[in-house]
Each structure stands twice: as structure tokens, then as C-alpha cells.
Amino acid sequence: MSYSDDSLKKAAETKEWLERKINELEIELNSLQDTLAVVNSVLKSSSFQPAHTITKSNSMVNQGSLSSNSYRKSCNVCQVEIEMRKIDDRWGAYILDSDERHKCDNDE
Ligand SMILES: [Zn+2]
After folding, report:
1. CA 48 to CA 69: how far, in whole Å?
2. Is this model's pTM higher than 0.85 or not?
3. pLDDT tens figures, 43-70
4. Ligand 1 centroid vs 39 CA: distance in angstroms?
5. Which domain holds residue 21?
């Protein structure tokens, strides 16, 4: 198997181009990660909640990372386990794994 000088030259140029491109993308990736870190810290310090925590289907997906916005407890009235969730700065009692309100606990 042999390559012409021309194709070797092309391969060398392609290698240089790829290395330059990878370097550029690494710089861009670092910059994007820095920006993401800034955005995350802004969001963390506010009461912002990602939209998917409010929509119906995915409300439990990020449960672990939302511990400050939700917790489980027993209903004072019927002793069933319920989940307290903070949505739009208001706490409400919800049925576990559901977006339905737990109705008998109106005071919270
Ligand atoms: Zn209850």
C-alpha cells in the first residue's frame, strides 16, 4: 500500500486542520461550560424552576436536585404520605408521583 506525495500532503493538511478545529472547539466548549456555570449559579440563587418541573408528565424527573422545592411528609389529616411542592413560590400538597393536589390538606 503506497500513497502519492499529493495524498500525503493532503493528509498532513487535513491533520493540521483537524487539530486546529479540535483546539478551537475545546476553547469554545470551555467558554460554554463557564457560561453554563454562571447561568446555573444565577438560577440557583433565584426561585426559578425549570419549566419541566411544572408540566404534568415530568414532574418527578429532577426530584433529587429539587429537594429545596419539595419534600414528603404525612398528611396531618389522613396520615397518607404526600409531597409538598413549591411552585411559583407557593407551597402545595400533592399526591405522590402525581400533579394532583392532595385535597384534604388545605391549610398548607
Ligand atoms: Zn390528607
Report:
1. 10
2. no
3. 888 776 666 665 554 445 554 555 578 8
4. 38
5. 1-46
